[in-house]
Every structure is written in structure tokens, then in C-alpha cells.
Amino acid sequence: MQGRLQGTTRRAMLRSAGAAHALALPALLGLGSGAAHAGGQVEEPLIDSVRSALSAAIRNAAPPVPEFPTVQAQQQYQSWVYRTRSLLRRRRPEVDDWQDFLQTVWYESKRAGLELSLVMGLIQVESNFRKHAVSNVGARGFMQVMPFWVRLIGEGDPAVLFRLQANLRFGCVILRHYLDREQGDEFMALGRYNGSRGQASYPNAVRAAQRNWHYVA
Question: What domains can be seen in the chain, in order of their start residue?
Fold first, then answer.
């Protein structure tokens, strides 16, 4: 069973890495100080094949420029950006422009095969859209990534987690990894992301926040 799950994880993460070419406790978690109080992922042993697949998924930090197969797809993206930027400006009026953030969320979500609304809901719960948020257990940035991930599958410098694309890349790849480990069970994967696997409060909070970001073109 373990071997099957590990193989599934490796295949899924390698698909996520290749997809770059084809191109997730609501508001109280983000305080004025930039602090965040979400839980943190638990460091678990990774077999070599999984570590290699995750490392490959983290690499290739090409500029997060979306590609669109049709004019209609581009128009849908532009409509999503316009609507979502308006919602973010109401939530965080002190931030002038959300263009780079939204472009990167779109790119990294699609690259990892994740729903945009799920990633946006997770970011709302984890950091309330604060780039430099730090939790009481040391998780960092928009998606509150634990620094041990940089040691396990990155280049070792946790400061990278305060960079926009790097934080979203790690967060999306980690969530994809947990979904694969849980065989697509979103409830269990979200709990694992928060370090509270099997408990309802965190998945329920993310799903509630996710409803704010659903968009139908």
C-alpha cells in the first residue's frame, strides 16, 4: 500500500512539474502586525523518489506569465483578475495593486492542478493575504509554508519564503503533495497542510473562505 501511494505521489508531482508548460480561522488569522496563527505542516520523512519529485516541482522558477490556448480563455482570466482584484482591494485597501499577486496565484494554481478558489481560500485563512506574515510556529508568507520545506526540497534559505512566487510555488506544490498522499481527499489533505489531520476546524474554515473566491465567467 505504501509503495502504491508513494508511486502515485511521484507520478502526480512529476505531472505537476511538467504542467508549467501547459499551462486554500478566517480573518482573525491575519492581524495588523502581519502575524498569523494558523498551524504548521508537520515534518515527515520523504523517500528519495518523493523528495526528488517535489524538488523537481519546486524548480523551474520561470516568470509566472499565464498562457492561454484561446482568446476566450484569456478573456476569462482577465475577468477573474478584475473581479478578484476588486474584492481584495475592499479587504485590504492599503494595498495599491494586486496584479502581480493574482497573476502568480493563477499561474501556480494551474501549474499544480489546484482550484483557484481553494488556493485563495487557503491564503485567506493562513495569512489573510499578508506577504510577510509569520505564525507562532514559524510558518511564513502568504501560504504559511514551514521553513523545513526549504531544507527538504529547496535550496536551504528560508528567506525565500517571503518572495511572492517562491511562497506560492512551495504552498501549491505542498498542497498538491498532500492531496496525492490522501488520494484526493481534500478534507484530509487540508488538515495535513495545517498540521491538524483528521480535525474539522481547519478544512471547514478554508472551505468557508473558498466560497468568497468562486468565480464563474
Answer: 2-26+45-213 (1.10.530)
